[in-house]
Amino acid sequence: MRVTVRLFAAHREAAGTSTYVADLPDGATVSDAYAHVCASFPKIAHRAGSTAFALNRTHVSGDAPLNESDEVAILPPVAGG
Amino acid sequence: MRVTVRLFAAHREAAGTSTYVADLPDGATVSDAYAHVCASFPKIAHRAGSTAFALNRTHVSGDAPLNESDEVAILPPVAGG
Amino acid sequence: MTQHFVLTSQPLDERAVAALLDRDGAGAVVTFVGHVRAHSRGRDVTKLEYEAYPEMVEGVFKQIADEIHARGGVIDVAIHHRVGTLEVGEVSVVVAVSAAHRSPAFDACRYAIDRLKQIAPIWKKEHSPDGAVWVEDRP
Amino acid sequence: MTQHFVLTSQPLDERAVAALLDRDGAGAVVTFVGHVRAHSRGRDVTKLEYEAYPEMVEGVFKQIADEIHARGGVIDVAIHHRVGTLEVGEVSVVVAVSAAHRSPAFDACRYAIDRLKQIAPIWKKEHSPDGAVWVEDRP
Q1: Which of B26, C30, D91, D133 could form a disulfide with D12 if both were Cys (CB 3.0 to 4.6 A apart)?
Q2: What's the gap in Å between the CA of A1 and the closest CA on chain D?
Q3: D109 Cβ partners below 8 Å, 6+ apart?
Q4: Nearest CB neighbour to A54, from listed D34, D81, D121
């Protein structure tokens, strides 16, 4: 299935893009999408503890299952305010 | 000695004046001025626990001694804000 | 309004009060604005009358700011209070605090309004359809 | 600005944000304004760059307001955040809360900014004479 991946801040800069489409096997989870990101853009360091995720614009944990056309966001540590 | 007494809110209304001059014996304290107020204006109920005082525009306790020309303020419970 | 500690019969402008603050190094500005409520302690309020000991009030506001500065962490404090007759919805008090960080700014703003209600020589007469009473011992 | 939850590249106006609040019955309005500081964690800051996940931010602000309403005591909450490049002294965020009484207004305003810093999908790049870094794990 194909999902849209959104990248931000240091991830976006490391990848050189803010959006890309990942092709993942059926049954893939949000964590699998993140692993795909890190494999596709080696400059992005995989940091399990400090990275959060959103699925279709709602916070989720890494084990959330993906469906065709989902939007997955990889959220590095936030710093709003 | 003569001191100026300032009255506020319910006290001012009960006395019908916001300022008056009290003639007190030498050695009188702020509490004595308050007793003089209550004696002079019977509509003002003496309430030791809930009345505060200022002497020359600074908070003081009732035992503060008075001097000629001092300004004593009788402060009923405040309600600013 | 160019003073930090003001008692006035004129309407208060919260932004003008906050604008007085020294913000050099300030990451946080917290502002408290008190409004006249239409209901108070089970009664309908038609208007409020604020009376003060004007010659003393600004010194007390300054004392409150000094207490805050003694606790540390704050850059600047401004306190403005209205006197006279206020309609429902009008602003009775504005407290503004600047600080490098948000936690001392919140703490100081709250301390200032709590302390003002404890010690500022200001009184309030609540007018309602049942009559008017001087408010005492307000929490 | 007519919305309660806004992400914008335009300068923020704290009074306009507070003016959005429903104040019916409000005795207290507490406003938090965040400014860009000239110094941060030992570095000189020349400017900040805020980046957000715009399609998600307003929902998160709404979620924060919902959490506040679930705790009770609050009338209304507005949260506005800036994105793009900000100079020192500019306003990055405004949180305004109205409540009948001051204690829940302070608590809710503080909760909102604390929570925003925890969960809002917003990132900040600090530019200094030494270079630019994305800020992480800011308290």
Answers
A1: D91
A2: 23
A3: C30, C106, D30, D31, D32, D95, D96, D97
A4: D121
Which CA distances in Å does C23 have to C17, C75, C98, D11, D36?
Answer: 12, 7, 6, 17, 10
Would you say D133 and D48 are in contact if contact means Cβ atoms under 8 Å apart? no
Q: Is the pLDDT of residue C138 over 60?
A: no
Angle at D29 between CA D14 and CA B78, to 5 degrees: 135
Token digits of residue C104: 């001392």
Structure tokens at C122: 């200001």
Quick check: D91 and D22 in contact, CB under 8 A? no
List the 63-82 stretch of D: residues with Cβ below 8 A of C. none
Q: What's the pLDDT at D40? A: 86
CATH T-level topology, domain D2-135: Aldehyde Oxidoreductase; domain 3 (3.90.1170)
Q: What is the Cβ-side half-sphere exposure of residue B60, based on CA atoms within 13 angstroms?
A: 20
Which pLDDT tens digit goes with each residue over D56-94? 999 999 999 999 999 999 999 999 999 999 999 999 999
CB D37 within 8 A of CB C25: yes
**Rg from Cα positions in chain C:** 15
d(CA C68, CA C104): 10
The domain made up of A2-75 has a fold known as Ubiquitin-like (UB roll) (3.10.20)
- CA D10 vs CA A56, A57, D94: distances in Å: 26, 23, 13
Whole-angstrom distance, CA of residue A15 vs CA of residue A37? 9
For residue D98, the distance in angstroms to the closest alpha carbon of chain A comes to 20
pTM > 0.90: yes or no: yes
Which chain C residues are within 8 Å of B73, Cβ to Cβ? 53, 56, 121
Percent of chain D exceeding pLDDT 90 equals 87
Residue of chain A minimizing CA distance to D93: A81
Report pLDDT digits (tens) over A16-46: 999 999 999 999 999 999 999 999 999 998 8
C138 residue type, one letter? R
Query: From CA A33, how far away is CA A28, in angstroms rounded?
Result: 7
Q: Which residues contact A53 (CB under 8 A, 6 or more apart)?
A: A30, A31, A34, A59, A60, A61, A62, A64, A72, A73, A74, A75
Q: Which of C6, C33, C37, C51 to mutate to test the interface with B (most CBs of B within 10 A)?
A: C51
Q: Where along chain A do its domains lie?
A: 2-75
